[in-house]
Amino acid sequence: MQNIVILAIESSCDDTSAAVLRNGILLSNVTASQKVHEEYGGVVPELASRAHQQNIVPVVDTALRRAGVDRSELSAIAFTRGPGLLGSLLVGTSFAKGLAISLNIPLIDVNHLQGHIMAHFVSEGKQDEHHPSFPFLCLLVSGGNSQIVLVRSHNDMQIIGQTIDDAAGEAFDKCAKVMGLPYPGGPLIDKLAKEGNPQAFTFAKPNIPQYDYSFSGLKTSFLYFLRDKLQEDPHFIDNNKADLCASLQQTIIDILMRKLIKAAKDLKINQVAVAGGVSANSGLRQAFRNLEAKYGWQVFIPPFAYTTDNAAMIAQAGYYKYLDGEFCGVDAVPFARTTI
Ligand code: KG4
Fold it and tell me: If you measure from the C-alpha of residue 330 to the centroid of ligand 1, how many angstroms do you get, rounded to a whole number?
């Protein structure tokens, strides 16, 4: 049997991550998050690049050590080529190239968004794991993207709907900022929403054709709503934080689910998955579980560790590309923007 050992590196935004995979089974996944951005209320690209530069050597060393794998055993190095912050991507890309050249092994470039979808195939070698079969629909929701992807195979994916303005994660983060919550606001809204009434307030829902999304109207409606309420009561936000978070979260979930359900019904697909940072949201996870009960669909929700940026998903995507013999040259350059 072939012994395929892949080291993967993810550095597209503010997480430096490395993972090791042997014959499709994940052996280690190590991530260093960057706290430096918190005080700025968002990711500062220049600071992210510098932090990646500091983190990458210890993160890769730790991933190899935890996997019990020596560098000489590696078959290939997979890396996130884009989309993401260019300076951040350059750190991971250059490191991957240097190591691949020194070990004389091939390089595999991975699209970050495809990586998020491949998170559903990450295997820890346990008995009770279940993975989607093809075709399935994946709702890909992160800080930078909101898409419905038709996944026909590991390497054949089509975006059938996407946001025409803000992403779902941006809607969470920007509305949180308006309420004076620290960055990133998504996880905090999720936490506060648990104590609130999701029906307390009503916010605008967009009317966009087919399977596309829009979140900028919701953000504006939320802003004007708060402005009016604060004129009547300067403590309105503090007095209603949980209800505001619960109602906002419910609105975002309703917007996301309505289009996904429409797409699944239209295409007669009964397997639906969710991926990306926003898939950590407990309300969204519950909305997915409800689909199982309501429609009998098979639903796939990734473990928390593989929802936000991580190298395990890049290793998994890289593994399939290795099997297909899809490698890239050492002249591969990162890209900031792309679709799938
Ligand atoms: O995929 P991801 O880690 O990377 C980027 O695309 O940047 O997604 C980050 C996004 C942020 O907008 C963050 O607020 C959101 O995911 N997020 C959440 C939750 N956890 C992370 N949004 C809502 N509820 C959560 N529990």
Answer: 32
**Residue 272 Cα distances to 132, 133, 135, 302, 309, angstroms:** 8, 10, 9, 12, 21
Nearest residue (CA) to ligand 1, atom 5:
143
Is residue 248 within 8 A of residue 222, CB to CB? The reply is yes
Residue 35's pLDDT is: 83
Give the single-character DSSP code of 37: G
pLDDT attached to residue 36: 85
With a 6 Å cutoff on the Cβ, whether 173 touches ligand 1 is yes
* Under 8 Å between Cβ of 333 and 93: yes
Q: Is 277 in the pocket of ligand 1 (CB under 6 A)?
A: yes
**220-271 pLDDT per residue, tens:** 999 999 999 999 999 999 999 999 999 999 999 999 999 999 999 999 999 9
How high is the mean pLDDT of the chain?
A: 95
Tokens of 29: 């996944």
CA 73 to CA 68: how far, in whole Å?
10
Distance 185 CA to ligand 1 centre (A): 8
Helix orientation angle between 185-193 and 282-295, rounded to the nearest 10 degrees: 60
* pTM of the shown model: 0.94
- Report how far ligand 1's centroid is from the alpha carbon of 186 (Å): 6
As a whole number, mean pLDDT of residues 36-54 equals 90
Please state, in angstroms and rounded to a whole number, the distance separating the CA atoms of residues 82 and 146: 16
Model confidence pLDDT, tens digit, residues 275-311: 999 999 999 999 999 999 999 999 999 998 899 899 9
User: CB–CB of 252/171 below 8 Å?
Assistant: yes
Cβ(48)–Cβ(88) below 8 Å: yes
Question: Residue 5 CB: number of other CB atoms within 10 A?
Answer: 23
**How far apart are the CA of 141 and the centre of ligand 1, in A?**
8
Question: Residue type at 51?
Answer: A
